[in-house]
Amino acid sequence: MEQEARTSYDVAVVGAGPAGLTAALYAARAGLSVVVLEALMPGGQMGETGRIDNYPGFPEGVSGFDLTMQMQEQCTRFGVDFVNEGLVASDLAAAPKRLETASRTFEARAVIVATGTHSRKLGVPGEAEFAGRGVSYCATCDGNFFRGKTVVVVGGGNTAAADAIYLARICETVHLVHRRDRLRATAAEQHRIAAIDNVVFHLNKTVRTIEGDGGAVSGLVIEDVQTGATEDIPASAVFVAVGKVPNTDVFAGQLPLDEAGYVVADESGVTSVPGVFVAGDVRAKRLRQVATAVGDGANAAEVAAEWLAS
């Protein structure tokens, strides 16, 4: 439930994905007053995932939406306040720290940044024009709209492989376009996708344009990175899975970032800015999964509580 009157807290958590929700839960259970700021629906990428099979405790898998709702309800039970507004400005050096949304200014003694990432764009003609009309960045969200049709997945990592595997179950043909001569996905994912008959690989290829007809995607043109030769692929949808971009713009100049824009912190989420901690996919680290986000959130809340008590 959103809190309208109160604007001063012990801990402000920015972002309501699995890292932010876990951080809020642990901080509240430590006896701290906690607010979570989130412009969109809670859950982040977890909330958009149809089924999660690699989070412990759910032998048959769990819906990302259901897991999100359970986490949020647990936070609410321990007194966490949720504000459905995004951050537009901040002063992390102030004491207390100031966090501004479009309508209010919040103060917090400590801040846990758990803003996650967003999908990287291809930046090709037709992508923006047909976004939501055949161009998608979430196969599990939109795949069912194209059941029985021919679709394209662009990318070569674990997300692209998982998207192609999922879509192959419900679509007639899945074309997988990747700019290198081999996928970057794990060996396990590559083994799974190699066994699927209706996935067609287009390696050493990039997307040149996304075409449309009648306001919807009708296909795309791909280009061979070695020869420059082009090829048309008729398709009803293009699912883009070429990586993520950290959501750190609002903290520019205030937090230490690596060359890719991720927040630099130690394994416990401690940054070089006193009283500011980071958790989840936005942190510079190797593995980004729900399980690692939850661990990050717990660590960040623990060290934040220790810092506030010191």
Task: Report on this structure.
With 310 residues, the protein is α/β, with parallel strands linked by helices. It folds into two domains: 8-118 and 244-309, FAD/NAD(P)-binding domain (3-Layer(bba) Sandwich), CATH 3.50.50; 121-240, FAD/NAD(P)-binding domain (3-Layer(bba) Sandwich), CATH 3.50.50.60. Helix content is 24%, strand content 27%. It is built from seven helices and 17 strands. It has helices at 18-29, 44-47, 64-77, 139-142, 158-170, 187-194, 290-309, and strands at 8-14, 34-37, 81-83, 89-91, 97-100, 105-113, 117-119, 135-136, 150-154, 173-178, 199-203, 205-213, 216-224, 230-234, 237-240, 244-246, 276-278. Helix 5 (158-170) links the parallel strand 9 and strand 10 (173-178). The longest helix has 20 residues, at 290-309. The two termini are 31 Å apart.
Provide key terms for this protein.
FAD/NAD(P)-binding domain; seven-stranded mixed beta sheet; single chain; about 300 residues; elongated; about 25% strand; 17 strands
The low-confidence parts are: none
CATH architecture of the largest domain: 3-Layer(bba) Sandwich
Q: Evaluate the radius of gyration.
A: 21 Å
Specify the number of helices.
7
Mean pLDDT equals 94
DSSP strand (E) fraction? 25-35%
- Secondary-structure element order, N to C: EHEHHEEEEEEHEHEHEEEEEEEH
Overall structural class, as computed from helix and strand content, comes to alpha/beta
Overall, the morphology is elongated
What is the CATH third-level topology name of the largest domain?
FAD/NAD(P)-binding domain
Q: Could you estimate the helical fraction of the residues in percent? A: 10-25%
Q: Can you say what the CATH homologous superfamily of the largest domain is? A: FAD/NAD(P)-binding domain
